[in-house]
């Protein structure tokens, strides 16, 4: 993670090209999000004979300042 030091992290996994039971998925992506940092890691896996094998990884360790304007157009999404 560059030079930001330890941070609390959450990983989000996205599987796709699955069967109707959300099993036997062909692909998987894992996104690493750091508290106060945002996206810092992405991994792409392919299912090979029942096991996910890492194909590609991007480590995003160049800190860049920015800003955004919060927008929550669907009120029921945060109630």
Structure description:
It is a single chain. This protein is mostly beta strands and 79 residues long. It has one domain. It is built from no helices and four strands. Strands 1-2-3-4 form a four-stranded antiparallel sheet, with no helix packed on it. Strand 2 (27-34) and strand 3 form a beta hairpin. The chain is flat and about 40 Å long.
Task: Give the arrangement of secondary structure elements.
Layout: E1 9-16, E2 27-34, E3 38-48, E4 51-59
Antiparallel strand pairs: 1-2, 2-3, 3-4
| Unreliable spans | none
Integer average pLDDT: 84
Counting DSSP E segments of at least 2 residues, the number of strands comes to 4
Helix/strand order, N-terminal first: EEEE
**Widest beta sheet: strand line-up:** 1-2-3-4
Largest sheet: 4 strands, antiparallel
The total tally of domains equals 1
CA-based shape:
flat
Helix content percent band: under 10%
Q: What percentage of the residues does DSSP assign to strands (E)?
A: over 45%
| Number of continuous helical runs | 0
Distance between the termini: 34 Å
Determine the structural class based on helices, strands and strand pairing: mainly beta
Gyration radius, to the nearest Å? Answer: 16 Å
